[in-house]
Design brief:
8 helices; alpha/beta; three-stranded antiparallel sheet; 42% helix; transmembrane transporter activity; two-stranded parallel sheet; ABC_Gly_betaine_transp_sub-bd; D-Maltodextrin-Binding Protein, domain 2; ABC-type glycine betaine transport system substrate-binding domain-containing protein
Length: 212
């Protein structure tokens, strides 16, 4: 998980407080942050961990600087957040390197180590969008296949390979990038030789309700 930021000024402030908040990292040298003026517009996709991180950023900015803050955690997709940043409607948000590498920078090559992924995204966003990324926050997200317990028991599902006999009649749901990211459904489908009847992009809250 990373936060990427629109300007070096904001990067200096928020990277510092986010890293301090996540693990007590040393503060980045700045002028007196209590003398800053302006408003930082914090945003997040409607995913629990990004919402929590966005609120952490807001609280830390409020407590450690003289800047005002606003927060909007109602963005349905990372692509919408990115466009809002490009349009100068928000100033920062937490996100994932893999999502930005494939969804925004349109990378279609082989899977990369996390450090190389981060560097490619950092360099690409600085070059193409004049946006600056913070250092890693220390955890990562991974896609999994999930069914409810009744379905698992009925079809004796224990591994992904067990879906092979049923997937052609089933609908799979994922986030807005899942059906197009090479390291998500396309790569998974090719590796397992399994194709679902349909793959729908949905918000996570709706997925949880639909699968219940």
């Amino acid at each position: 998980m990373y936060t990427y930021l629109k300007s070096l000024l904001i990067a200096g402030i928020v990277t510092c407080v986010l890293l301090l908040g996540m693990g007590g990292m040393p503060a980045i040298a700045q002028d007196d942050p209590m003398q800053y003026e302006g408003t930082v517009r914090v945003a997040a996709q409607t995913v629990n961990e990004t919402v929590v991180l966005a609120w952490m950023a807001k609280i830390l900015i409020d407590e450690h600087t003289s800047l005002d803050t606003t927060i909007n955690t109602d963005f349905a997709a990372s692509s919408v957040l990115h466009q809002a940043m490009v349009n100068d409607e928000i100033d920062l948000y937490p996100t994932w390197t893999g999502t930005q590498l494939t969804g925004i920078l349109r990378y279609e090559g082989p899977n990369l180590p996390s450090e190389e992924t981060y560097q490619m995204v950092k360099d690409g966003f600085e070059e193409h969008f004049n946006m600056t990324w913070s250092e890693p926050m220390g955890f990562n997200n991974t896609y999994i296949m999930a069914v409810n317990k009744e379905t698992a028991d009925q079809y004796n599902l224990k591994t992904a390979s067990d879906l092979r006999d049923y997937a052609s009649d089933w609908v799979l749901a994922g986030d807005e990038n899942f059906d197009t990211r090479p390291d998500a459904y396309p790569g998974w489908s090719e590796a397992y030789g399994i194709t679902f009847k349909d793959v729908l992009p949905m918000q996570y809250a709706m997925i949880y309700q639909a699968i219940a």
